[in-house]
């Protein structure tokens, strides 16, 4: 199973048409569409400091046919720097309407005020929470060993199936895994 790496995400972001627009324009268009209010397959828990990689990840996950919630795109009016009951209530509603949460690990994610809370909330409410480790380079892409509380969660990887088709997988180990789509439908990883 291969971890997703930051270079792959930056390249995908650069292919995306929206990233060439200003961040303000993207937020305005999303707000006008009411995009944040609809249900999503994935609530992406991340650090805003990783904006380019996160945008590339959104596009990559959408390439697989999944809808993705990103707060600064779907709810641009939110002030993520402000910890308030109103912000928490809106994020809670978005997580409840999302089928899963992927916690994106990076050097910046440990600085986030919200990501640990989001991960714990989604895990407690639906159990459909996983870690999405972003490798810093292509050579470190085989396995993930979570640190501290992140080791309590399965992780997402990308790999070709037996028919050669690239797919997303949820893994506990390199021999205990399941297709991401099946996990979204409530199945659990199993030993191979």
Brief digest:
By secondary structure, this protein is an alpha/beta fold. The protein contains 7 helices and 9 strands; from the N terminus they run E-H-H-E-H-E-H-H-E-H-E-E-E-E-H-E.
Give the class-level CATH name. Alpha Beta
Number-wise, the strands total 9
Secondary-structure-derived class:
alpha/beta
Broad shape = globular
Rounded Rg: 16 Å
User: Low-confidence stretches at least 5 residues in length (pLDDT < 50)?
Assistant: none
Query: What count of domains describes the coordinates?
Result: 1
Biggest sheet, open or closed, and with what strands and sense? 5 strands, parallel
Average predicted local confidence, pLDDT:
87
Percent of residues in β-strands = 15-25%
CATH topology: Rossmann fold
Helix % is: 25-40%
What is the CATH-assigned architecture?
3-Layer(aba) Sandwich
Number of helices: 7
Which superfamily, in CATH terms, is the homologous superfamily? Toll/interleukin-1 receptor homology (TIR) domain
Biggest sheet: strand arrangement:
1-5-4-2-3
Oligomer: single chain
**SSE topology string:** EHHEHEHHEHEEEEHE
Spatial separation of the terminal alpha carbons: 13 Å
């Amino acid at each position: 199973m291969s971890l997703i790496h930051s270079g792959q995400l930056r390249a995908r972001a650069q292919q995306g048409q929206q990233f060439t627009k200003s961040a303000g324009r993207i937020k305005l268009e999303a707000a006008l569409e009411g995009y944040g209010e609809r249900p999503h397959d994935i609530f992406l828990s991340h650090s805003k400091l990783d904006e380019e990689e996160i945008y590339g990840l959104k596009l990559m996950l959408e390439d697989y046919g999944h809808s993705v919630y990103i707060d600064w795109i779907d709810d641009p009016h939110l002030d993520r720097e402000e910890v308030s009951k109103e912000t928490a209530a809106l994020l809670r509603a978005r997580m409840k309407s999302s089928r899963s949460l992927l916690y994106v690990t990076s050097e910046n994610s440990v600085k986030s005020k919200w990501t640990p809370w989001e991960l714990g909330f989604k895990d407690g409410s639906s159990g459909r929470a996983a870690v999405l480790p972003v490798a810093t380079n292509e050579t470190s892409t085989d396995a993930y060993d979570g640190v501290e509380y992140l080791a309590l969660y399965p992780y997402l990887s990308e790999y070709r199936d037996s028919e050669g088709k690239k797919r997303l997988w949820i893994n506990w180990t390199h021999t205990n895994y399941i297709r991401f789509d099946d996990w979204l439908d409530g199945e659990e990883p199993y030993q191979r």
